[in-house]
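In the current project phase, the collection of sequences with tokenised folds has grown. One resulting record follows, to show the layout:
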Amino acid sequence: LSCFSGGMFGLGSHEEATSNSEKQLEVAAGLTETCVKAYRATSSGLAPEVFSFDYKGNIIVANPSYYILRPETVESLFVMWRLTHDQKYRDWGWQIFQAIEKHCRTPGGYAGIQDVTSVPVQHNDQQQSFFMAETLKYLYLLFGPDDLLPLSEFVFNTEAHPFRIIPET
């Protein structure tokens, strides 16, 4: 759940320029990359619900090692793309999308998987409501044009609903 924090720090660095803005953007980039590395650390290309690090900074997949279609990493990828236009954020988002398509798509929709380290995967037979409301929305926005819900005009709540920012008069 904490992988939204890359986007949060990114937005914090962007809204009001301070002496810490550059450092905040660096923190945002590092947090986002760490969350992406959790996806890359598994044979399915999907991040576990829980992970930790060894003394060298390598990702350790912890138990439970399931994946339930969470949006937080792709939310950070979307925000970081919009703020920096660094192609790596779209590339990482595309890799995550491909892993979701490959391992989570079922005849009736999408489902989480029981163990991200085991391929072929075993589905958990649940499509969480946040998958379409958030995960797919953020992936769509990641690859869409910047003028579609621009961050300078909209803020997203915790369920990815956009709210127009009302300018101060």
About this structure: The two ends are 36 Å apart (CA to CA).
